[in-house]
Amino acid sequence: MKTLLTTILQFLGTILAADFATGLFHWLEDAYAREDTPVIGKIIAKPNILHHHYPHAMARHSWWKTSRELMLAALGIVVVAALLGHFSWEIVLFALLVGNSNEFHKWAHRNRAENGPVISFLHRFHLLQGTRHHAMHHTDPKDSHYCTITELLNPILDGTRFWSKLEGLLEKTLGWKRRVDTSVRGFGPGPAWIAEFRNSSNGQINAH
């Protein structure tokens, strides 16, 4: 019984660790990724900006287009852990969750018909983060609910003002200032290429 309980706690702990890790990356994207930054601007910042202007755009992307960069990062996690002698099922689970976090995120932007019965069941019983919960992230000022796998961590992190305190610390110590989110009312209309996307029939930018 003790071994089973320990395994269950490790399983849940791994899920929450992955949720926090991806939430941390999501916060960094939203707060500090800028489109004029070399490499990062094109791969991370531009899709992020687009996603805040057009949240549902990512819903039509394939798994590969949504998850390819994260799956490469997940593979790197497993390889490094194995080389360091720390390979375990917890590492594999953590990597799989991180690698598919944008897929979970995408499901939270789809309706029941788009998701199908299995994913809709998981949302209904709050086993994965659902649409209503994630919608809070896309509600002005769009500076909360960064974790996208579960619905457990966001109330704690936002309730303790974890992200805003971390931003304050970084501004005080490193001089980092949060990027203005042009999708928030009063801060738009956003960069010129946003208008190009609006007028496009297919939207080729890969939004995260």
Describe this structure in words.
The chain is mainly α and 208 residues long. The protein has one domain (13-199). Helix content is 62%, strand content 0%. It contains 10 helices and no strands. Mean pLDDT is 91; it is low at 203-208.
What does the average pLDDT come to? 91
Order of helices and strands: HHHHHHHHHH
Question: What does the radius of gyration come to?
Answer: 18 Å
Inertia-based shape: globular
Task: Please count the beta strands (DSSP E, at least 2 residues each).
Answer: 0
Tally of distinct domains: 1
Q: Which percent range describes the beta-strand content?
A: under 5%
The separation of the N and C termini measures 41 Å
In short:
The protein has 208 residues and is mostly helical. It is 62% helix and 0% strand.
Main traits of this protein?
208 residues; mainly alpha; 10 helices; 62% helix; globular; disordered C terminus
Strand and helix layout:
Elements: H1 2-32, H2 40-53, H3 63-83, H4 89-99, H5 101-107, H6 112-124, H7 131-135, H8 153-159, H9 162-174, H10 192-199
Helix pairs in contact: 1-4, 3-4, 3-5
